[in-house]
Amino acid sequence: NRRFVLASRPKGAPTPENFRFETVETPVPGDGEVLIRNRFLSLDPYMRGRMSDAKSYATPVEIDAVMGGGTVGVVKASNNPRFSEGDLVLAQGGWQDFSLSNGRDLRKLPPELDHPSYALSILGMPGFTAWHGLLKIGEPKAGETVVVAAASGPVGSIVGQIARLKGAKVIGIAGGPKKCRTVVETFGFDACLDHKDPGFAEKLKQAVPDGIDVYYENVGGKVFDAVLPLLNVHARVPVCGLIASYNATGLPDGPDRLPLLAGILLRQRIRMQGFIISDHYAGEFADFERDMAGWVKAGEVKIIEDVVDGLENAPDAFIGLLEGKNFGKLVVRIGED
Ligand code: NDP
């Protein structure tokens, strides 16, 4: 069983030295357990938080423990009556070839699934995150203007596509002209702006002549600075992620801008609300699945996957995700056997 464990906690951006590649015996399932061959591993920005021991909503990965992560795999041996050899399952298998589960965190997937890795993206956690944050907090209405960054990634691209289905005008923000072109041509956004362009803030202002009604926050940093003065009265801001600061070692320099933020929130009567998607599975996942399965089938919502071959490439791919090097949902193909 090849696997990556957390060797040390990053200071700032993670480096390859924070991970250690090991080969150990393949585990043997005990009573009630199943052995899973992991086929696809999802790499997600939240994993940066788990590498750190700072206070958070989830417990950190221990040093020398296997890096956690969502996986799609095949049951190889089962001592659990609910699962049989050959079942395709969604699991928390982590960065390794094989994993054990007591069955509680497993979901059986239909064996005929065209794209099993979609259970890690459009039909899974990132898709659900987009659906919940946009519809339950953002509440876009026809004719309103919705802005979302990381717009070629799984969460951002799905936010924009759902907002279009609800009749909103959708402006994406992404890193570079190639990503921006895809956001418009493949995902059907009305426009997309490059946050690396020196004239970005001014171009954003021109792109939203009626102001911004929903800003779906994925990144923070300079993008949020550009968005803040453009928010309309009664705008909604679902706070989903702040990836621009995940590698930060402290607060940014410069004047205290909290009074500016608080003043705009007050005068514009803005609702800004954070959420963690794991809180919402029990109550809403079934509704999401129904909506999204229909949209995917009808070709109304699409996803681009960035598939990296080989478990050994997971650390570099993950480090790149935090720098915007991925193009679409980042997934590692561990093996097909
Ligand atoms: P993506 O695959 O879109 O990858 C992250 C993207 O963020 C990068 O590709 C890059 O895109 C962009 N980015 C990185 N640094 C910066 C920066 N400094 N400024 C602007 N953009 C930057 O990720 P996901 O779709 O998986 O996740 C999107 C956000 O949603 C993340 O913040 C994540 O933490 C959050 N999230 C929150 C959840 C919750 O429960 N609240 C659940 C799931 C995700 P580009 O090159 O276009 O800039």
Automatic annotation (TrEMBL):
CDD domains xref list: PGDH
Source superkingdom: Bacteria
Transmembrane segments annotated in the record for this chain: none
Any GO BP: carbohydrate metabolic process
Domain Enoyl reductase (ER): 14-332
Keywords carried by this UniProt record: Glycosidase, Hydrolase, Oxidoreductase
Gene3D superfamilies reported for this sequence: Medium-chain alcohol dehydrogenases, catalytic domain, NAD(P)-binding Rossmann-like Domain
InterPro entries: ADH-like_C, ADH_N_2, ER, Glyco_hydro_3_AS, GroES-like_sf, MDR_fam, NAD(P)-bd_dom_sf
GO MF: hydrolase activity, hydrolyzing O-glycosyl compounds; oxidoreductase activity, acting on the CH-CH group of donors, NAD or NADP as acceptor
Family: Belongs to the glycosyl hydrolase 3 family.
Designated name of the protein: NADP-dependent oxidoreductase
Native organism: Jiella endophytica
